[in-house]
Amino acid sequence: MTPHSLTRETLPDQKTQTPPPMDKELQNTTRSLTSRAKVLWRIAGPIAALAACALLLVLLSDLSRGLDYHGMTQALRATPHRLVWISILLTVVSYLALIARDLCALSYVGVQVSTPALLLASFCGSALGNAISFKALTADAVRDRVYGAVGVRPEQTARVMLFINVAFGIGLAAFAALSLMLAGNAIAHLLPAPIASIRCAGAAALLAILLTLLLRSWRRQPVAIERLSIAMPSLAITLVQLVASAIDLAAAAAAFWFLLPRAQIDFFSFAAAFSAATALGVISRVPGGLGVFDVVIFLALRHFVPPNDVVAALLIYRGVYFVLPLLLAAASLAGLELRSVPGRFRSKAGERVSLGAELLAPIFLSAVTFAMGIVLVVSGATPAMDWRLAALQGVLPLWAVEISHLLATLAGVLLLFVARGLYHRLDGAWWLALIVALADVALSLTKGLAFGETAAIVFLVCLLLATRRQFTRPAAFMHQPFRLGWFIAIAIVIACAIGILLFAFRDIAYRREIWWQFEFDAQASRSLRAILGASILALGISLWQLLRTAPGRVEPPSEQELSRAAAIIRGQECSAAILALMGDKSFLFSSSGNSFLMYAKRGRSWVALFDPVGRCEEWPELVWRFVELADKHGGRAAFYQVRPDSLPLYLDAGLRVVKVGEEACIYLDQFSLEGSQRYGLRQALKRGEREGLTFQILPPRHVSLEQDVLSQISERWLATHHTVERRFSVAGFEPRFVEAQSAALLSQHGKPIAFVTFMTTDLQTEATVGLMRQVPSAPPCTMECLFTQLALELKGRGFKRLSLGMAPLAGIARTPLSSRWHRLAGLLWEHGKPIYNFQGLRSFKNKFRPVWEPRYLAASGAAGPFITLADVAALASGYRRGSSAI
User: Fold this and answer.
1) SS3 category, 758
2) Distance CA 610, CA 107 (A)
3) What number is the average pLDDT over the span 562-586?
4) Which of 358, 491, 632, 687 has the fewest beta carbons under 10 Å from its own?
């Protein structure tokens, strides 16, 4: 019997172990304390990060006295290329050992995955976990997505990640003990103890770790953590795991050690300091141990290696071991994204791996974008090479260099903020990141011929283009609320940039006049202005996010609200109000509960559909309450497709009104088939008879019985037109909504081929067309025949009016004295057929000789109507059945 890795201990007596029930007061107190503890923990984390950052800045300020910026840059350029390649090779070895570690963990849990899934999860997870330590962006999150995509259960993935984390801690302790045991004489300068004592302590610690692991693996004795029991792996898995951990840490340490060309410290003494720095970096929870790891290494090596060489080696090691794998992982995911064309992967395993890559692409793109933002901000704080500025001086004017330097730094700040929107897959964030990156390609060259920076930005552009399909959420990059931790991370970046600026220009005498020096060689002045601009921009965006009014949350209607709305609709004439029952709009009821508004929200637009429904005397109250509700949440109020006789209500509320189209209304008491103007309708009916078309009306109770037939026709129509169900102001095929209507069904030789649903109320005076669908093989005259028969049937039943719906942009005249909106609408009407067949829709409805009644949009703000129209178009755009309406 295979033991479980993570099990609950069996309690001998459940009755005696069951705690006594707590009274209500004690439960409330416990919940209150738990809630306060969570709040305090959320606050304590960012405060601790700020305190650690401040402490590191103080330490770095003290340690940097022996450093020189130009000496560091010279040490960087003097590092032999072969040593960099050796470091890269050792980094590859380290990551191969990490892959072996994942394989051990999967074997321990008893799970097998495909090789591509293992490589994707292990390499990408390790690359992201090494570089970033935020909770939402850890290696655990990567493995959870990839292994979950290939069928690994969540509890199994949790055990894999627990095994990896525990194994890393044990492996780090064992490697540190081994390093102490084999350390050379240099260890005496690091630890105030005799060399023999240090080696004996290391050997004893290593022996204790090995004996404990071997004993527990042999006995398979579980390790108890509170009430959890973790079973020990087999002896073979334990040994393989120890070897993999040793190779990982030894290769990582050697990748750094080889970058110290004049090192006077042996490898194992350095490995002991490396292990301590790694452990402290992990404990600090700072991303990549940035600052913590570096300070410990600097303190350990300052007596053996010149300070400038230590910093140069640290920078190269950061780039090789942390940044390079992150970029390679992001590029790999982008490559998989480009290959994941529908039908490209023939095997199910390939499709699952592709799905895992799609889930990871936004995470890695967010990390790379944030890193690019750091690069741009830090670049703005550091001087450019003199020969590059000299080359620019003969080509560009000074003002171009100054503006490019400032704008490139501000672009870095924008990327720091936009990275969060990319993590949440926002399309607005994707577009802004692309625009900023493309602009910075030119800015990086014109500010100082920063070729490396330009190459990095081009790489980011390629990643953005390759992963475009993943950013489908229709929102701007500031749509998602920023958490305190994100602001603190950006504040730390700005603070570090200021520290780097002061360090790079430490020999400059900072006077008031330095801010106004504009010369090619006045790089300190240029960097000061750039960092000041970056600080102001970051502070401004942060304050705007923190102080802006809450955007408000729109909840889908409850069953009770839908029932209340249906009862109100049944007692009034406006049949189009039945669109409220689609369930994609929220409701605002009047004080009496006898009237309501239906509305939806997108971005800052709060859009009510139609005039209020219910008693006319309650409309002003609803209009004002809705305007105040939108204003309370910092949004714009809008009313879409309102009638001409209700315009004074919206004008009194301070809203701006524009015409958006005309509604086609057939007054049935005047409708007939007589006269030359109705010749086309008579011909359609005659042709329908020859084609064997028969017409029938289905009341609501029969619509539910025939819903499967109607659904098949609807799905075939959607597939033919390559579209999806629509919403908000347009009817969609939702079961509850369809069942609340009647339907006109047209059959050919007894087989249903087309239908039209129409909405009516209990007053039976007005009907409004809802859905109109037909199969691809239906005769050309089908819809004309169907609408003509429907109008005649409703006229016979005593209805007074049939609405065919609105024709957008119809009836908006374009004259020399027209407003800008009228001229734009006229252009769209004449030339917008590739976007939407505006004229074709009106031409079809015009066959029935309707009366065209104007419809308007009322919105707040000077530009409110134009922005709202774009949001209305997005609200009405298609959604797939089963998706959330709001």
Assistant:
1) strand
2) 62
3) 87
4) 632
Of the candidates 560, 548, 540, the residue with the CA atom closest to the CA atom of residue 487: 540
- Tell me which residue has tokens 């790999």: 332
Reported residue count of the chain is 886
The CB density around residue 853, as the number of other CB atoms within 10 Å, is: 15
Q: Which helix (H) or strand (E) holds 677?
A: none
> Above pLDDT 90, what percent of the chain?
5
Rounded to the nearest 5°, which phi and psi values hold at 763? -75, -20
Q: What is d(CA 154, CA 166) in angstroms, rounded to the nearest whole number? A: 18
Q: How far apart are CA 61 and CA 40, in angstroms?
A: 31
CA angle 157, 158, 161 (to 5 degrees): 85
Q: Residue 196 carries which side chain, given as an amino acid letter? A: A
C-alpha distances (whole Å) from 455 to each of 162, 449, 530 are: 38, 11, 21
Query: C-alpha angle with apex 284: 278 to 287, nearest 5 degrees?
Result: 80
Angstrom distance (rounded) from CA 126 to CA 329: 10
State residue 505 phi and psi, 5-degree precision.
-115, 45
Strands (E), 632-784: 636-642, 656-667, 693-698, 742-748, 751-760, 766-774
pTM above 0.70, yes or no: no
Mean pLDDT value of segment 287-294: 70
Q: Which phi and psi angles does 627 have, rounded to 5°?
A: -60, -45
Structure tokens at 810: 């119809």
In the three-class reduction of DSSP (H, G, I as helix; E, B as strand; rest coil), residue 151 is classed as coil
Check if the beta carbon of residue 612 is closer than 8 Å to that of residue 622: yes
Q: What does the pLDDT read at residue 96?
A: 92
Question: How much of the chain exceeds pLDDT 70, in percent?
Answer: 77
The owner of tokens 């939407």 is: 836
Query: What is the pLDDT averaged over residues 551-565?
Result: 80
Q: Are 174 and 245 in contact (CB under 8 A)?
A: yes
**Which residues are registered as beta bridge partners of 751?**
748
Alpha carbon 229 to its chain centroid, in Å, reads 37
Distance between CA atoms of residues 161 and 140, nearest Å: 6
Domains and CATH numbers, the chain: 41-339 (no CATH), 366-544 (no CATH), 664-806+827-851 (3.40.630.30)
494 token code pair: 């700005």
Q: What is the pLDDT of residue 598?
A: 92
Beta-strand pair 801-808/766-774: parallel
Distance CA 476, CA 551 (A): 13
Is the four-CA dihedral 810, 815, 819, 821 of positive or negative sign?
positive
| Cα gap 552→874, rounded to integer Å | 19
Least confident of 478-482, 636-640, 733-737: 478-482
Helix, strand, or coil (residue 674): coil
- Structure tokens of 421? 């929107």
- Strand ranges for 821-867 from DSSP E: 851-859
Is 784 in a helix, a strand, or coil?
A: helix
Mean pLDDT of the region 790-803: 89
Task: Map tokens 């490209």 to a residue.
Answer: 344
Dist CA 263 CA 672 (whole Å) = 100
- Output the DSSP codes for 61-95: HHHGGG--HHHHHHHHHHS-HHHHHHHHHHHHHHH
